[in-house]
Design a protein that fits this description.
Number of domains: 3
Distance between the termini: 71 Å
Shape: elongated
Largest sheet: 8 strands, mixed
CATH topology of the largest domain: Immunoglobulin-like
Number of strands: 27
CATH superfamily of the largest domain: Immunoglobulins
Structural class: alpha+beta
Number of helices: 13
Strand content: 25-35%
CATH architecture of the largest domain: Sandwich
Helix content: 10-25%
């Protein structure tokens, strides 16, 4: 027979960090996937073990003690990860008292086994659940295949490199032999696993020492001991299969005359059963966790490397959100990684809201990770990253602290801003600061409620930098909101608000220009919010510093509001608008889960 003849070559996993600034700058990162079939140097020595390990091996798969866990988490513990979770992890999980803690534990459980930490997908988790599903569907009955001997081996070791099936025939039970080429250091490099058909369709794991060949034959031969049973298997199925019934290790010699087996195969089976708790497995997880730890290995860089623009805007319900955009000053401050011929980035953004008394009110942490095609990567090279999001805020004065982290390079960029959210109920009119933007498009109606810098159904892409710099001919475009108390809104009100835009060079008299406009009060929504804006041509403007002032007047109440924005006209080429835009992709869940209302 040649069913065990072929061997699989070792695979190598490589990841490269690629700063988007430079095609030639590639920081290589190598990682070892934490699959049972991970690429590690195989050990050709069997580990020492005790007979007690055999008793562990002989126990049934469903060994978790009953707890009062909610059904979702009980199933995760007793089914999803029952063969790969360590005893220490199991006891820790059972001791958790909140669903939030359990969710964080599960997230961490998979991440420390992730061969590509921070990537949008986790190959280890995906492979594990594929194995679990396959085992459930193909072994056992009614979807319980994961709880069979075959299911346990398949989930723990993955699909065999080769397998041979022998149907039941006169004198021999049905058998299935799986051949594995192993790369886990706790196991031999090559070995077999044997299953025998104890009852019709019920395949059980075979132990050469504890079961012996007599468990594999039927009739009178089964009563005549190991040697006679071995000879019957040899005669019916061949010498190689008969050899496998005495040892699961292809290179271990056997004595056909007495057909006795050593403990080596059974010790190996015991190791497989408790592989999640083997010292090699535990040590590999600890090393992988150390290499991916966020907190202790994070380099915090100077604050002037991150530009921030903040803008309070009312949403469709009349609640205020502080929209923000974080922009790295240099393209080389950001990097992407490569794994499995795919590129990806991984970010962590933390926003902390501090009240006037210095106490933290709440914080929001968002992780964003996505794959990029080669074309995507080429289109953003040389562009600094701009990340957009928002947090809910009630009226008051706050310090808002940002920490923007590239998880691949473990570099963090801090920034802090002071903001004030007015109490509009105490004043009849409020004018927000203008927000300069490079692009404005109609927002997707399904996303408009949570997209950053979206107002009045329009999605704006703001400029952000140490200064707003434009070249002659590059229009100055900005938007702002006008707020009123909801009680002051009258849908039938057709009166006007007067707006004056004045801009010029403060140091040069006679350069000021003024634009007058009227805005109908009927544009206020039912919560008292209105978005407006303007585009001002710059072709005729000379280089230098300018100032724009917006004056808003309500003729009915004679209330006036003012705001201003500096900008600069420069002659050299300006690439400020050329940014790589990334949005907080967790805002939809943040809003629909009710967490944003709770934080407010």
């Amino acid at each position: 027979m040649s069913v065990f003849a072929s061997r699989h070559s070792e695979l190598q996993a490589h990841r490269r960090l690629t700063p988007v600034m430079n095609d030639n700058t590639l920081n290589h990162i190598s990682s070892t996937p934490m699959f049972v079939s991970a690429v590690v140097r195989p050990s050709r020595r069997l580990p020492s073990a005790s007979i007690g390990l055999l008793l562990v091996f002989l126990a049934l798969p469903g060994f978790c003690s009953s707890t009062k866990l909610p059904p979702k988490y009980s199933q995760w513990l007793k089914k999803d990860v029952v063969y790969i979770i360590s005893n220490e992890e199991r006891e820790t999980f059972k001791g958790l008292t909140s669903d939030e803690a359990r969710e964080k534990f599960i997230e961490h459980f998979w991440e420390i086994r992730n061969p590509t930490p921070g990537a949008p997908s986790n190959p280890y988790r995906e492979e594990h659940y594929q194995r679990l599903q396959y085992a459930s569907d193909h072994f056992g009955k009614f979807g319980d295949g994961w709880n069979t001997d075959m299911g346990r081996i398949y989930i723990t070791l993955g699909p065999p490199q080769q397998k041979a099936r022998y149907v039941a025939q006169s004198g021999v039970r049905g058998m299935e032999i799986w051949f594995y080429e192993n790369r886990h250091p706790a196991l031999p490099p090559f070995f077999n696993i044997v299953f025998y058909e104890k009852d019709f369709g019920d395949f059980r794991l075979y132990s050469p020492y504890m079961d012996g060949p007599q468990k594999l034959v039927t009739g009178i031969q089964a009563e005549q001991g190991r040697a006679q049973s071995y000879l019957q298997i040899d005669r019916i199925l061949g010498r190689e299969v008969a050899h496998t019934t005495l040892t699961l290790l292809p290179n271990e010699p056997v004595n056909p005359s007495d057909a006795n087996s050593t403990l080596l195969s059974d010790l190996m089976l015991g190791t497989i059963r408790d592989l999640a708790n083997h010292p090699f497995t535990i040590e590999a997880l600890k090393l992988h966790q150390m290499s991916t730890e966020d907190v202790t290995h994070r380099l915090v860089l100077p604050a002037d490397l991150l530009n921030v623009l903040c803008a309070p805007l009312r949403d469709s319900r009349g609640n205020v959100r502080l929209h923000y955009v974080l922009r790295l000053t240099q393209p080389e401050d950001f990097a992407v990684a490569q794994a499995d011929k795919r590129y990806y980035y991984s970010l962590d953004t933390v926003v902390r809201v501090i009240a006037a008394d210095g106490k933290e009110i709440f914080n929001r942490e968002a992780k964003t990770s996505r794959y990029l095609t080669k074309d995507d990567l080429d289109s953003v090279k040389g562009k600094p990253v701009a990340y957009e999001g928002w947090v809910p805020l009630a009226p008051g004065k706050y310090k808002v602290r940002f920490m923007f982290t590239n998880l691949l390079t473990k570099t963090s960029f801090p920034a802090e801003r002071e903001v004030e959210i007015p109490e509009v109920a105490k004043q009849d009119l409020f004018l927000t600061d203008p927000v300069p933007f490079s692009q404005a498009d109609a927002a997707d109606p399904a996303k408009g409620d949570y997209l950053p810098f979206t107002a009045g159904g329009i999605r704006f892409r703001p400029y952000v930098g140490k200064e707003l710099a434009l070249v002659p001919g590059q229009d100055l475009k900005f938007f702002y909101q006008i707020w009123r108390p909801e009680a002051a809104v009258k849908t039938s009100d057709t009166s006007k608000l007067l707006v004056e835009y004045a801009y010029g060079r403060p140091s040069y008299s006679g350069t000021a220009k003024t634009i007058h406009e009227e805005i109908s009060k009927s544009q206020f929504d039912i919560h008292g919010s209105m978005v407006s804006g303007k585009k001002i041509e710059t072709m005729a403007m000379a280089g230098g510093n300018y100032r724009l002032t917006i004056s808003l007047t309500d003729p009915d109440t004679q209330q006036k509001r003012f705001t201003a924005m500096p900008f600069r006209i420069v002659i050299e080429n300006n690439s400020q608008a050329e940014t790589w835009q990334i949005d907080d992709d967790g805002l939809a869940d943040y809003l629909t889960s009710g967490q944003s209302d709770y934080d407010r």
